[in-house]
Protein 1
Amino acid sequence: MEKRLGALPVAAEFLRRLDVAGIVDEVCPGGASALVTHGQVIEALVANRLTSPAPLVRVEDWARCWAVEEVFGIEPALLNDARLARALDAIAPHLEHIAGTVGARAIGEFGIDVARMHWDMTSMSVHGAFPGEGQNENFPVIGYGHPKDRRFDLKQFQAGLAVSADGGIPLHARVFGGGAAEVSQVVGALKDLRAMAGERDFLMVADSKLVSYSNIRTLLAAGVQFIAPAAKVKDEVYAALDPAQAIIVNWTPDREAGKPAERRETYRVLEDTHTLTGPRKSDPPLTVRRILVHSTANAAGQQTARDKRLAKAAEDLNKLGELTLWIGNVTDPPTVQITRGIQLHLLDPLDTDIGQTRWSQTCD
């Protein structure tokens, strides 16, 4: 009888070195009479996702066609959907602990450099009603929020992922409810990453959602270095800058590497400080370093965008020249006549009918 082997031995070796089964069984021990432990089932599920993903009702068939029994020592019949569901139910309350322990194990076992870790969140929209009263509040609740795909008509859940700069290896993941504020999840991620890194110092890289008073306060208190895009800088700050004081950075983007030096975009940087104030008067101000970057490519792009907006505005103003005034008579008051082109361009977006009387003017 032939069975597929594929990458099963590779998956099994990595799972063994990460001790996934042992970590799961430590927090989710099964009965002494169980033919297969929760940890063994979870390892088989991970192997399925890595080789030939299948729904729960088809995992048993996958195990029969693949050399699961020979590699993992698990009979295919023991991977029926009911057994898989029991294992998933068992680990559900302990997912964060299991994920953090496996991540820490990976750092030590494979020597992953965690000097810099990147954190970000995304949203995943779902189709269906998903009423709130039918969901377990002990777990992330599917609901409305601020979807990244702009599908405000759909409910969603959110996921956060932390990866190492060393190879982009996922080390930590968390799932959040659809309505959870992204800015409020940074502190939880920081604590998890701090626990995984142990005594190691690391730099946390995130998007602009990291820059809030509560997040910065926690990062400073924990002694964690961080970098994130600054919040919107006021125009008067830029207006007060002296370009002559900026330092030219010796860096060339990959997309510019093939261009002659005189045609490459350049970057200038200035460093100053930024002070954040808390929501309460008693909150101490927090001062952090801020790096302001000027890119010639961005400046040219912004100039092009401004030119296009100005040209569009000039076109709109020229179209207003098509407006004419009909004087009328005693019984027929003066009326502003609007051509069809003006109606399509200016009035239709306002949902205004060309025949509405509020566009007529009468003289006293």
Protein 2
Amino acid sequence: MTNYILSSLIAVSLLVITAKAEFTPSERTCTGLDKKIKIVVSKMRAGYKIKQGEKYRAKLKQFKNHRYQCKQKRFDVN
């Protein structure tokens, strides 16, 4: 059980790390990030199981990181 949880956390971490490396801010990729974040947050408020919650948290972290990168380049994220 502990190995499963540990391997899940490692997989999520690797997913987030690779997502950071692949993202290049541009006007096209930055448009709609706030909407995507709101969708994930609303899904989290609706309730979820542990496995789904880990996916939501990873996706939310990824979107927030992308939004930060877009704002650094002064692209619109709405």
Protein 3
Amino acid sequence: MTETALDRAWAASEAGGDAETARFWETFAATELFLAIDPATLSDEAPQPLTFPVEGAETALAFDTEARLASFMGDEAAHLTLSGRALAEMCAGAGAQLGLNLGDAPSATVLPLSALAWAAEALRQPIEAARGDGVTLTKPFGAEPDLLGRIDARLAGLGPALAEAWLCGAEGEGLLLCLRLAEPAAERAAVAALAETARFAGGERAAFAIAVLEEGDRRLEAARRVGFGFEPAAPQPPAPLAGPPKLR
């Protein structure tokens, strides 16, 4: 079975320390998961997860691919799709732990309620887009290669919504990630996604703040001069049109 991003993040967390564990939770939060649902509740307004008692605790089941869900639960297993961030919040609220990728996946594990509650609390901490008014931008001194890689990976997920991104120092305030969006309506989703990286990469405080700027803003011009630039994802060309079907 194909290795997934969660498999790699879990293996790194098992072999590493706090930084690798935080990166696992960052990956978990951003991953689309397939949650097994009690089929008897599918017609209800709010379907309930299928749970089993494991070591005295109610345990929900989720998988990061439909193939893993089908392998463990059967091809017709009732399920819902939701993000890891939403699932952590749900489990923490319900007092349930989570069986993740149970079966033969490298990341097969049971995430305890205490860990899910911690992740849910971390994800609730607000990181709003900062205005950055009156801040002097500098080169991003102290930005580690690992942080640059994590930001780059998250920016790639924004696709064509991102026009440009520059990581700068903000005098007296740490690091500031300056964005210009090609699609202004994507601001809320972009800030939320990048905020997860900021939270889990930063330990006790966020690793960076976020500022969404517009063309012509003097702060954007300064960011271009001193910041570390990220290459936006290139738009994918349309697939070639297949030939016409044969007619009988």
Protein 4
Amino acid sequence: MFDPVIAPSGTLLGLLQRGRGDGTLHALTAPRAEALAALNHCVLHDPRHDWQVENRSLYYARLYLDLNGELDAVEAHLFDPEDVLDADESRTGLALAVLGHLASYGRLDALQLLRRYAAHGVNWAWALDELALRDDDAGLRALAAPVLARFPHDAEGEAELAAAVRDAFEPRPWRLWADDPRESIATRVRAAQETGCFDRWQRQMNSTGPRPGWSVRAVFEWAEQGVERGTPLHVPAARCLTAVAGPEDRPEIVEAARSGTEGARCTALRYLADGNDPDVLDLIEGAVATGSAPVVEAAVAAYERMRSLAAVDRARGWVHRPDALGAAAGRVLACRGAAQDRDLVLAALREAVRGEGPDAPTLWTLVDGAGRLGIACAAPVLRHVYRETASSHLRGRAARALAATDPSFAAGFAVECLWDCEETTREVAARRPPSRSGERTGVPGAVPSRGTGGRRTASGASRPRAPRRRLPASGITPRGTARHGRP
């Protein structure tokens, strides 16, 4: 899947793609046709860089409700011929999650679309997980026949059915079907459940991982086998070394960290860093200078896990390096540095934004560090990250940092945060007391002022508690989607 194309942050589409609170507020004041077009674009073309951790579905579903939006575009997208050609879950996952939330709010058209797609769509398992949380028993029982018809009555089909039952995120439909009064359905589902349980037991018995009595060399060989298969195993291998290595094995492990094969070197560096070995910092520096890309990545990751005073002190010297180790040193200071390191963290933050843009992965830690250390001078950079990043999680971190560093946060961004797509970001704003009574509202129909005065409703009554409606009420707390914790 290609990275989504994100519109500029000053446009309605750009605001909605990012899930910003201003997106909702501007959509409610824009012409309805324009707002619905932008909303449909977001739902049909998932704007998230990481759809497994970023929330959008509840945000978009509530906007459909506020705009009384039709679902014709979503229906056309789900049942487009491309659905047969593109089985990637990311093509339809967000649309199905939005339909799930709309069904929770009583939209029968959304519930019917989910039922149709579960019966006929390629990404039927996701739709079934949504229905497992929202549909009644009768609706789920009606789907038993079309779902089971997807699996042929042969050995391969039964194996696929067993895998689908075993890997289902929501087991409710399968449990209902196992007790179905139609014997042909109940018998087949119960057999698939039994096969899935046996498969789990068999995988545990046939494990090819470490065994009692393994030596240090055997652990290194196992890690190297992972490299050959393209499956890095140095992290579990380092944990194995903790169990099998003794003081007498240290010379062998240090030598592997200095000049071993790729798998052994990554494993040894991780093990020595976790144990705060006195030589590990020099070994990490050497690995970054002479190692392959996977070794450099493992060495940097091992260094960032270290919490010793020596690691923090070394970071103060490494932070000026223009390589991966210098970037890691900035993140170490952001996490574990002291007040004396504020200038270094601020410089690293500015350099990351200047060199890699507002979506750089390193910003997650640096933004947190700016807030932790209370770097007031970082507020302009944090505001830029807040406005421009396409990651709703990074924006939430920027909001937390701004709450700790920017005196104007309560009167400015906190207003918008109350309407954000991320629950944690809304909570940051809700916990931030306004500096003047009634300066924050969130009344639909008017974009809140970032200035001095509070908004009043059309009737003239002040409503300082109105934004609390955007926080999940008991019983409708957003759970992302049903499937794999997908938001």
